[in-house]
Each structure stands twice: as structure tokens, then as C-alpha cells.
Amino acid sequence: MFSQESPEPLLEDFGNGKLSSGYARVELDPLFLDCIKTDNEHPMRVFIQLNDDCNGVYVKVGDTYFDVYELQNGKSNAAFTYHVVANRKDTDFLRFPEARKLPAQTTHGH
């Protein structure tokens, strides 16, 4: 897996979805789920970008999925993209951990 630099050890997943009569369930990739750990202090974060017109959406996150609901009991079939961010399973939950010191560089002959 690859990861962008961030203040915490995070992993990300991206994808596409589509509402069906105002609702969609997105099952997350088992490989991604195997690499993350979530808890109350470090929840999975889901960001939705709508690609079609609708009333807006909200998200409810489960352990292996997330549900997308259209606001105001909307019934559209709007397409969307998603971005999921969660903490890596194999690390401590550290934010801006102290970096280890690099050895001092010396210049020879100058």
C-alpha cells in the first residue's frame, strides 16, 4: 500500500458509488480493512463528492462499509466519488511523533 504524508500514520481508499432512490451502501475493500484499525478516538473518515444534482448527502459508517443517504428524504440516483481515511493497524496512534535524530554531517577538508 502507498500513503500520502500526514501527521498520523493513515491509509486511504478512493472509489465511486451511486445512489439508488436516495441510498447507497459501499462495502470497503477487504485488503484496506485488513490494514486499518479504528476506535472511538480514531474513527474512519469518509468524504463524499457528489457528481450529480441532489439534495446533499450524509454518511453513516459501519465496521466494513458506509451508507450514504440523500438529505430531505431525496430519491435521486446521483453518482458520487468517495475518499476514506483511517489509521494504520500496525502503528501506535501518534500525531506528529518526534522524529529520530539524524547523525551530524561533517565536511572533510573544508
Present the secondary structure layout.
Layout: E1 10-18, E2 23-27, H1 30-35, E3 45-50, E4 57-61, E5 65-70, E6 79-87
Description:
There is one protein chain. The protein is mainly beta. The protein has a domain of 73 residues. 5% of the residues lie in helices and 36% in strands. The chain is built from one helix and six strands. The strands form two sheets. It has a three-stranded antiparallel sheet with strand order 1-6-3, with no helix packed on it. A three-stranded antiparallel sheet has the order 2-5-4, with no helix packed on it. A hairpin with a 3-residue loop joins strand 4 and strand 5. The chain is elongated.
Key traits:
elongated, single chain
Give the proportion of residues in helices. under 10%
Enumerate the strands of the largest sheet in spatial order, edge to edge or round the barrel: 1-6-3
Rg (C-alpha, Å):
20 Å
**What global shape is seen?**
elongated
Largest sheet data: 3 strands, antiparallel
Low-confidence stretches: none
Beta percentage is 35-45%
- Decide which structural class fits the backbone: mainly beta
Question: What is the end-to-end distance?
Answer: 43 Å
Order of helices and strands: EEHEEEE
Estimate the mean pLDDT confidence. 90
Instruction: Work out the helix count.
Output: 1
Please give the number of β-strands. Answer: 6
